[in-house]
Amino acid sequence: MYRYDEFDRDFVSARVAEFADQVDRRLAGRITEDQFRPLRLMNGVYLQLHAYMLRVAIPYGTLNSRQMRMLAHIARTYDKGYGHFTTRQNIQFNWPALSDMPAILADLASVEMHAIQTSGNCIRNVTADHFAGAAADEVADPRPYAEILRQWSSVHPEFSYLPRKFKIAVTGASRDRAAIQVHDIGLHLKKDADGRLGFAVYVGGGQGRTPIIAKKIRDFLPEEHLLSYTTAIMRVYNLHGRRDNKYKARIKILVHETGTEEFSRQVEAEWAALKDGQLTLPDADIRAIEAYFAPPPLPPRPEGDEAVKLSRLDSRSFSDWLGQNVVTHRHPDYAAVTISLKGIGEAPGDATDEQMDAVADLAERYAFDEIRVSHEQNLILPHVARADLKAVYDELVRIGLATANSNLITDIIACPGLDYCALANARSIIVAQNISRRFADLERQREIGELKLKISGCINACGHHHVGHIGILGVEKKGAELYQITLGGSGDENTSIGEIVGRGFGPEEITDAVETIVETYLALRSSPVEPFIDAYRRLGPQPFKEALYAGEAKAA
Amino acid sequence: MKVLTANRLSDGEAVWYAAGGWQETLEGAETVADKDGEARLEALGAAAFAANQVLDVALVDVVLDDGAIVPTRLRERIRAAGPTNRNDLGKQARPPVAHAAA
Fold first, then answer.
1. Taking the model in full, what pTM does it have?
2. Quick check: A50 and B84 CB within 8 A?
């Protein structure tokens, strides 16, 4: 994985020193909150309901065991023994004191981590496929390009005061696991007919209060033009993006209001002036960054097949976990493992300091020291020999992280919601927990099959409800929580935005409503292998509306 | 009826104004029931903000339930108690403050 060079190290240390000084001055009352607020946000420090919150960047969701242990250390030393992994592949600590921030950031810097650009109207953490470098269906690892974008966008003087925040995602596989079409810029790394690497470029996607699917404005951008073309997009946005209305300031509104064709024309015109200039990436530079992401040498472990076969016979629960949480690796002797942070009845994405330490140990011992955070709020060990899967599983059982529910209905994305977040209107976690408990039975979950359920506690949609097969949006109505259901959303290569099914449900009703939807699907699917999303696309909303609201129509 | 609340500068802890100063629990906070009282608390809040003691200062609606101060909005009940999914965190972890919700 990427290692800091001298420049990175100096830059991060200088920022820690600068922010430490700003915190000191704030605590001493020498600067006001109005002066300090933008400074703390630039360093990932928010104020939530109960305390400050620190959001730490995990570039493209990749970290090593040393970094994971440091996150555990921070949770233990400065927080309350846990952290929350987010849909931007980052981690949030919910209880740190402002006075501890300099020490926390110094600890992070010691393992090449920071919280820069995890907030504010700048280019945020670039996300990537969590199976990058391991996936069998990958053309090339997208992370070198995410790293190039990270270096280019870090305190970029021209793009530090954009009209609004800006999110970029990259995938290198045909199966999109990075939800690139709901990003400000989505990049799909692929090869052209001559075998050259480049990108399909999507612009203007996003969720929030105005969900829009990104438009493809270029089918193939040769890799060397990544920065010049991205700069052209950013310039058009920076110039024309709306600054008069925060809710209309994202690039998706600009693309929508300008029209895709005209927007592309403006980008191409801007690019014509930039193309083949100093932003062109020299091949040697791309290959040098790529070298940091070279896959670990994977020695042959052909004994894996037999070992897995025997262990499966021996343990039904191992077999279930293998079937659900382990995916094919490009190397036949290896596999990628999803560590579910969605234990039944647990808060999605939360991990204790002990669990983080244990995952770090596992990564070090069995997974070439690599860990990923998925945007679905799970952890991934991308390279595990099949021969070691049982040992990994046994340890995950010991630390309570062996729930075999990847991609099932209890693998829920949920934002922190009103239990923590100052922006939220309704709780998310407790809704996720109740649904998780209702569908706790693994056999039932597997019978239901792949079902992505996503919950947001406000219209900002941090819980990605717009792209949930079943999406739940919490709102406040007459002082009470109300949950709106959307159906048919999807955040993959066939992205769609969910449609509101009807009136909302109270906190006591929402779990039943989800169950009604699931039962309706089970009764109407064409066969046990027709997934929920396919059935919904075939059937449309009507049968679900009838199941949810039929009684009311009669009563009326 | 209203109380004055904020978060403490140094650690972000949710605090409420009671006669004489800021405290970490809602119980015993000063309540006001008229415009004059609200204006007085608002001025106190503005002064504390200006003095860099607190931030996110707000007057919030409360009712008295059996003598106990209960915020009208769930958001404020959660601030006063802690996350509803983790009764071991926040002020509710220090008995005897009631939970915000079951």
1. 0.96
2. no
